[in-house]
Design a protein that fits this description.
Layout: E1 3-7, E2 12-16, H1 20-26, H2 30-38, H3 51-69, E3 77-80, E4 84-89, H4 95-106, E5 120-121, E6 130-136, H5 139-150, E7 155-164, E8 171-180, E9 186-189, E10 205-216, E11 219-220, H6 223-226, E12 231-234, E13 249-257, H7 264-272, E14 287-288, E15 291-292, E16 298-306, E17 313-317
Amino acid sequence: MMFISHSSSRVAHLRPISSIADLNFCRISPEQAAVTMENYPVPLSPPPPLLSKSVELNRALTASSKSSLFSLSRDAVLFEDEWLIAVNKTQGIYCESVLSSVRSFLYPDQGDESKGPELHLSNRLDRDTSGVSLITKCHKVAAKLVKAFSDHKVKKIYIASCIGSILKTHTMTIRSGHGRSKHGAWRVYALSDVGRVLPGGSFVRDMETSFKVVAMNGEKAKPELSEDKEDVIVVKERSAMCSDDVEKVEVMVKAYPRSGRTHQIRLHCQYLGIPIKGDVKYGGVHEWKGRKYEGHELHAESLEFEHPVTGQFIAIHAPLPLWAA
């Protein structure tokens, strides 16, 4: 039996729904639903293509298998002291597996994880993103680093290999909104939409990334081009994705994210018309020149920050993968 609620200031009284009028009272008309959807901000980047579903599923299954067998080697340790450890994360491995492996590496005789030291991931890299992964060894240090990241006091540098249209400038900063669309996918929104409510109840948040082109079609960018006046892009309208009719070029970029939103660099590369190689979810090629990509080519090259305990300047660099060397 269905019930309908009539609430007073303190107590809700329920009575059975017994008439068509009651049912109509509970329904939302198509016109009302349309008005409701119109009140939400419109995403300005494309939704994930159909191909991404099967590709992402296969990659997830492969990553789960690899992650279960993953073991950290001494060569992967980039930095370590009493409070921190940084490792070079492998592509196709989940962060949680890296964290578990670090625990086994640091405390091989500690069987019960719940009784061991508190390890925390300071920067959470996507499954297929390689590079610097920073882990703290105690809660107080973790809290300080969280604040440093939130206050934009940690300099992050990534490198990405992309395919798309020729960019008008070699240095740029893109500012936009970020959030989940009604189907749950992360999308780019207009900067003016920041603060507005999304269908799932969350809010559009701001995100900002600076880019510098370092190579095109395998040739390093000329120094004078790299020092061009920075172009600031404030997102207001839909992205102009590179069409199949336009000649595509290979572009290597360095990315400097100011904020730390989920899939931020991947989304901004997609919006700029240079999706990352292998990033099928955000418009990147699955195959290119006879090669099929097992993951996207995005690498966390370095982190620079003030040590949360000693106050010293810390710069951690991960070796470049073969595709970026």
